[in-house]
């Protein structure tokens, strides 16, 4: 179908037909062979492709804005814009996409008129294909730092300047150039006030990487920075709180023996950044040990709660996970359990006789034992809503089989972890969710969620928050690979040794072995 075949006069027909034509062109491009192109043609094709990709990132915003203006997204059962972007369009970062749309798109005002974009020059550059999503995000990050006390014309000139200079820069170069612009607009920082600092304050604990390390990023206001510097300078002094030195003094230097601290400082080979890390870790550990966080948080103990697989403890390999979502190597799990003053929480799944797990109608809120049992159960490490990663420390206990108001029971087999956001979207109206328990299959025992459709619409499918078992899949593939190379391998013995951990020279291992052996003896396990 060519351009002449598109009937632009037919109401609503042009846009779907054009997208259908684009889809056909993309199929043809995928089938084309770059090897048949000359060098010049390849260079031209690559440049055109990137420009088209940048344009495509913003062209659909107009259609999405029209959907929001008409509230047509409610026809899908989505009650909010973010829900529509997440579940219907499957956009990776809906909040970032909404921010970009609010700055570049033309929404309908309360008067019924289309209002101009907040950043018109950036919008024009993006629609031309000069700026892609990453470039626009970088520009928005720069312009968000403009002091609110700047005159309106100065802000407009700054936006136009960023639009002009960004078309030739990479996203990282845009950030650098934006910093120079901000320095020019407010060289002495006199226009920046508490309003700007309050608006920009944040702290992000990023996800763990493959080495289970986490990057901490954020912006601290002057008072918070001053307090943090006191902690880092004192608790991170050379020789203090060194986890690699068993004789390193712990806590504040004022409480340490002077000679011991001097000797530890001579042995200290850590960099300043490593000392700062250890200082923060020691300070947080001291706060937890002192009980300044209280006794409970969302029904869980206000301490580090860890669950680990018995086989991993036996072999001293693998990892455990905390109620806050952090993954710990088994060696650190052992260290945590063996520390003085630790208060271990062990969930027992045998006849439910260790903790009261069935409360019926006697109590609406789940007990601490139920919270711990839920966390230790498969899938209990996070909110049960499909795709949600909020850890157990931030969830509530949702009556999944039948809502409490409808006669639901506070029994462990009827409860499910749900973060406050998703716990509030359960209901009977279109756009809300209905929940239940899976009775068979790989998700047996887990909670399914189903979005209620609009009246007369087809029912939506049931979904569960079930991630693939990467560890088990890898083990199976590894066994298959070894069998192909070396032949069939003997199965490991199924018997469990009398002691969970072999008693070695380490006091930690002996204490943990004793702790786990006593626990198994009391619970009747073998």
Short overview:
The chain has 526 residues and is mostly helical.
Architecture overview:
The protein has 526 residues and is mostly helical. It folds into four domains: 33-188, no CATH class; 221-292, no CATH class; 368-464, no CATH class; 470-523, no CATH class. It has 19 helices and twelve strands. The chain has helices at 14-31, 39-59, 61-70, 81-88, 94-104, 120-128, 133-143, 152-166, 171-185, 194-200, 222-235, 258-267, 272-289, 310-315, 330-338, 368-376, 420-423, 470-486, 507-523; strands spanning 202-208, 214-219, 296-297, 300-301, 306-308, 319-322, 327-329, 396-399, 415-418, 433-437, 447-451, 463-464. The strands form five sheets. It has a three-stranded antiparallel beta sheet. A hairpin with a 5-residue loop joins strand 1 and strand 2 (214-219). Helix 6 runs parallel beside helix 8 (152-166). The longest helix has 21 residues, at 39-59. The radius of gyration is 29 Å and the shape is globular. The relative contact order is 0.05. It comes from Gordonia amarae NBRC 15530. Residues 369-424 form the HNH nuclease domain.
What structural keywords apply?
526 residues, mainly alpha, 3-stranded antiparallel beta sheet, 12 strands, 9% strand, disordered N terminus
- Note the overall shape: globular
Tally of DSSP β-strands: 12
Rg over CA atoms, rounded to whole Å, is: 29 Å
Number of domain units: 4
Number of DSSP helices? 19
Please give the largest β-sheet.
3 strands, antiparallel
Mean of all residue-level pLDDT scores: 77
Report how far the terminal alpha carbons are from each other: 71 Å
β-strand amount: 5-15%
Q: Helix/strand-derived class?
A: mainly alpha
Low-confidence stretches: 1-6, 344-354, 493-509, 522-526
The helical percent reads 40-55%
Going across the biggest sheet, name each strand in turn.
Answer: 5-6-7
């Amino acid at each position: 179908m060519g351009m002449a075949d598109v009937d632009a006069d037919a109401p609503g027909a042009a846009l779907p037909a054009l997208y259908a034509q684009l889809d056909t062109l993309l199929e043809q491009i995928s089938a084309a062979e770059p090897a048949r192109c000359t060098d010049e043609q390849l260079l031209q094709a690559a440049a055109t492709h990137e420009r088209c990709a940048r344009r495509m990132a913003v062209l659909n915003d107009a259609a999405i804005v029209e959907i929001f203006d008409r509230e047509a997204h409610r026809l899908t059962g989505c009650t909010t814009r973010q829900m529509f972007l997440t579940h219907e369009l499957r956009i990776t970062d809906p909040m970032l996409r909404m921010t970009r749309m609010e700055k570049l798109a033309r929404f309908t005002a309360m008067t019924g008129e289309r209002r101009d974009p907040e950043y018109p020059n950036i919008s024009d550059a993006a629609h031309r294909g000069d700026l892609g999503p990453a470039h626009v995000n970088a520009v928005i990050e720069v312009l968000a730092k403009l002091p609110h006390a700047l005159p309106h014309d100065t802000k407009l000139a700054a936006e136009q300047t960023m639009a002009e200079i960004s078309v030739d820069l990479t996203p990282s170069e845009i950030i650098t150039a934006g910093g120079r612009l901000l320095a020019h607009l407010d060289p002495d920082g006199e226009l920046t006030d508490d309003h700007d600092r309050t608006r920009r304050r944040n702290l992000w604990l990023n996800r763990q990487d493959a080495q289970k390390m986490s990057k901490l990023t954020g912006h601290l206001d002057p008072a918070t920075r001053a307090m943090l510097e006191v902690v880092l300078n004192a608790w991170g002094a050379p020789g203090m709180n060194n986890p690699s030195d068993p004789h390193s003094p712990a806590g504040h230097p004022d409480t340490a023996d002077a000679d011991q601290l001097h000797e530890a400082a001579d042995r200290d080979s850590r960099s300043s950044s490593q000392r700062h890390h250890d200082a923060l870790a020691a300070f947080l550990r001291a706060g937890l040990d002192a009980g300044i966080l209280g006794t409970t948080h969302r029904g869980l103990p206000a301490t580090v709660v860890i669950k680990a697989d018995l086989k991993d403890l036996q072999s001293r390999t693998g990892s455990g996970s905390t109620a806050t979502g952090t993954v710990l190597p088994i060696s650190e799990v052992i260290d945590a359990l063996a520390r003085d003053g630790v208060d271990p929480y062990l969930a027992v799944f045998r006849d439910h006789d260790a903790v009261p797990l069935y409360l019926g109608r006697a109590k609406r809120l789940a007990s601490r034992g139920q919270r711990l049992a839920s966390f230790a159960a498969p899938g209990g490490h996070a909110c049960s809503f499909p795709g949600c990663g909020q850890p157990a420390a931030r969830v509530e206990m949702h009556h999944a089989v039948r809502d409490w108001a409808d006669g639901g029971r506070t029994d462990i087999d009827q409860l499910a972890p749900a973060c406050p956001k998703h716990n509030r979207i359960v209901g009977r109206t279109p756009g809300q969710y209905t929940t239940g328990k899976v009775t068979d299959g790989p998700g047996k025992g887990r909670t399914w969620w189903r979005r209620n459709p609009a009246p007369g619409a087809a029912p939506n499918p049931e979904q569960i928050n079930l991630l693939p078992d990467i560890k088990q899949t890898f083990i199976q593939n590894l066994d298959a690979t070894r069998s192909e190379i070396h032949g069939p391998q003997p199965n490991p013995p199924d018997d469990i040794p009398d002691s969970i951990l072999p008693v070695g020279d380490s006091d930690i291992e002996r204490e943990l072995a004793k702790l786990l052996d006593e626990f198994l003896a009391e619970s009747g396990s073998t």
